[in-house]
Amino acid sequence: MFTKTSLVFFAAIATAFAAPTDSVFNAVANGSAVQNSDVSASVGSLWLNHAQDASCDKENTNVAAFYIKDGAAFLYAASATPQQLYIDRSGMGRGKIGYVTGAEPTPKNAETTGFAVSDDGKLTFDGEDSFFACPSGDSYAIWKQQFSEDCGAVTIDAKYTDSPVGCSYTQ
Which segment of the chain is annotated as a signal peptide (predicted)? Predict the structure, then answer.
């Protein structure tokens, strides 16, 4: 079951490889301090309760849109250079979730495939739906691993949308 609020969790791809609109979704985080918070993208990271820094097709868009293709997750854009999500679970990366644009290389130990939406509508990575919201000022950065006691467990619900808003996000 999908929640009322939504978080769009896909990266932009070039027009020739545009995602079908029936596969684009908004995503919502569920967990104590961030219940029903929309996921946004800014400065190469995914956030909760954070103003989005992006150039979007619609003004005042503060939720990121996503799609998954062949296990890779992208931020949605109708026509822009693709922005692909990655997770770095190495000792140095500590579960960092970020995104890169176009031909920009991912960090050394970054993993770019393994994303999916489960039968019950949860975003997963390698079959696991657990993520962590770690405080950063008034916002929360989304990570795959808990690297601090301040980080709280969250799940991310995908809510499919017929009218996704495309954006190009800041690095």
Answer: 1-18
